[in-house]
Design a protein that fits this description.
Elements (H helix, E strand, L loop, with lengths): L1 H7 L7 E3 L1 H18 L3 E6 L6 E3 L1 H18 L5 E8 L6 E7 L27 H11 L3 E6 L5 E7 L6
Parallel strand pairs: 2-4
Antiparallel strand pairs: 1-3, 4-5, 5-7, 6-7
Helix pairs in contact: 2-3, 3-4
Length: 165
Amino acid sequence: MTEFLTYSRPITLVVDDVDPVELAATAVELAGAAAREKNVEIRTHSSPGLPLVRMDRERMEQSLLNLLLNAVEACDDGGRVALTIQPAAGDGGVDFVIQDTGPGISAENLPRLFEPFFTTKVTGSGLGLANVALIVKNHGGTISVDNLPQAGACFTIHLPRASQG
């Protein structure tokens, strides 16, 4: 129900300048129990000197957590999830890159992942990734997904720099 309300109501962002590394650390901590339960390791790497990002901390934390939990769920026992926080090429923003060692996403499902009510899960609402995409868009950012050559999926959230001038 919460996911439906998030998707159906206009989003009001409560923005502040946020350290992207701190945000990522909180999301990883929240995903930790699910990862331990599946014996999946979550590794993080961040580039030094990242700029602050103007964002709604709670909503972006929710978005990163959603992606991390999906990545953990995609992995087999002993799998790995990597979260990299790095400078974005071109606009001085930040990219959050989440990669997993799961099977990847089928070619027919890849273009539909961010559509509302699309799900491949038996108990899924189909709104988790749609909400992530909506939240990222409302921050002036983008989200993309690709399969990795060696198997697994890679989601990238791009957010612009906090102050543009």
